[in-house]
Write a structure and sequence with these properties.
The protein has about 160 residues and is mainly beta. The chain has two helices and eleven strands, in the order H-E-E-E-E-E-E-E-E-E-H-E-E. Helix content is about 10%, strand content about 35%. Strands 1, 2, 5, 7, 10 and 11 form a six-stranded mixed sheet that branches. Strands 4-8-9 form a three-stranded antiparallel sheet, with no helix packed on it.
Length: about 160
């Protein structure tokens, strides 16, 4: 009798635990996301733009942190690309289908160091390859913003939910 009361109490306790449906959604995979660069703002040799990752899947997923970037020419040649992280702590972003996470990109268009002062500082990219956080493959988006000087260096912020 005592065992059945404890079993009933244990089962009752399980009924109030969060269900599996309340568990965190799966990590967004590269295939779940599309990338886009928009809202480019020029100023004093610098450029600032918004990088968006849109959930194009049919399910909710989560992401968060910093993206990886790679500039590429139309012939597929990889150009020098690096990132410097700025802007605070990374947070988890939950994206329902169609929702976006955004990061801010900043770069210079003025040659630095050993880059040529006459002509383009670096090769001219045609695409920006974006590696979502915790992924190893990339999604691409057209790059129509000319060369990225300082050897392709971007300053990036962590992803946050778009408004």
């Amino acid at each position: 009798m005592r065992t059945s009361i404890l079993t009933a109490a244990a089962l009752g306790a399980l009924a109030v635990l969060p269900s599996a449906a309340a568990a965190a959604p799966p990590q967004c995979r590269t295939a779940d996301l599309s990338a886009k660069v928009g809202n480019v703002q020029p100023g004093a040799g610098q450029r600032v733009a918004t990088l968006s990752l849109r959930n194009t899947s049919g399910h909710t997923c989560r992401t968060g942190g910093y993206v990886g970037l790679q500039l590429e020419t139309s012939s597929g040649r990889k150009l020098p690309t690096s990132t410097t992280r700025a802007g605070g702590p990374a947070r988890t972003v939950t994206l329902r289908p169609g929702q976006r996470a955004v990061s801010t990109l900043q770069w210079t268009v003025i040659a630095t160091g050993d880059e040529p002062a006459n002509g383009p500082c670096e090769g001219t990219p045609s695409d920006l390859l974006v590696i979502p956080p915790n992924q190893t493959t990339q999604t691409g988006t057209p790059w129509r913003n000319g060369p990225v000087c300082d050897h392709g260096t971007f300053t990036i912020t962590p992803l946050k939910k778009a408004r």
